[in-house]
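User: I've been going back and forth on whether these two constructs are worth ordering. Before I decide, could you fold them both?

Assistant: Sure. I'll take them in the order you sent them. The first construct and its structure tokens:
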Amino acid sequence: MDLTELLNQINWLAVFVSTLAAFILGYIWYTPLFGKAWQKEQGLSDEDKAAGGNAMAKKFVLNFILEFIGVLILALFLANSNYIDWLMGLKIGVLAGIGFSATMTGMGYLYTNKSLKLFFIDATYQVLLFGLAGFILAIW
């Protein structure tokens, strides 16, 4: 099967909804749940955070685009499978989050001397992101 055929099998609305759900999860994860801990582990003061100001809108747009690409790749994997129910979508999403995203983040953190706590905050979000996306893509 070529890429065009595979792309024709994608439910683009499900990819968009999955990305939106992941974006909302990220807001919850990095604001009320782990925002202060993440900020501390990054070494950012409240002044540093506030200085982001107008740049935050650009970061949110780019973040959404990057999440969309990640969810689209997961959708391509799922579209090439014979039978996907919600549980299998969730499992494949979690495994993709662990196997691709969290491990690569960990490798990067090793060489930038970032803390284990920061790794767990970021990597767990990524695993949850892909698990949620896999679940939504499978039920749609």
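The second construct, handled the same way:
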Amino acid sequence: MEGKRVKDSSVTMAQMMIPQDANPSGNVHGGVVVKIIDEAAGVVAARHARSNVVTASIDRMDFHNPVFVGDVLFFKTSLNLVGRTSMEIGVRVEAENLTTVDVRHAASAYLTYVALDRNGKPREVPPLILETEDDHRRNREAVSRRQIRLAEKKREAGR
């Protein structure tokens, strides 16, 4: 199976936050942000695998700054690690106030997806070609997160 570069599946999605996304104070609900993060990461996983994919886990979800009604969120999403059937995708969310042009790092997340065949069973995905130093750094960090995830899973299975 021929490998694919990180940039071949990376996406940036934009979404304006509107009143229905927020509480009465105008702060956007975290769940709204998480939903779009999942959608953006799913697009990256499907582009890489060229098959149906499912979310296996959200390894890390950090909110750094609040998001308000009227902000435009940019979901910068790319592959960090590819296994045999699974993929780790990193998402950086930036919030831009269109009036002041203030840009804030709003959130970050790491999600794992599994590619599925037509019968809903895990299927192999193309290997990941790392080109830039940033690609290599993110891959090294993802390998460490994967080792932690697997160790936690093993501990939980032993309970």
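Notes on the second construct follow. The mean pLDDT is 96. Residues 133-157 form the longest helix (25 residues).
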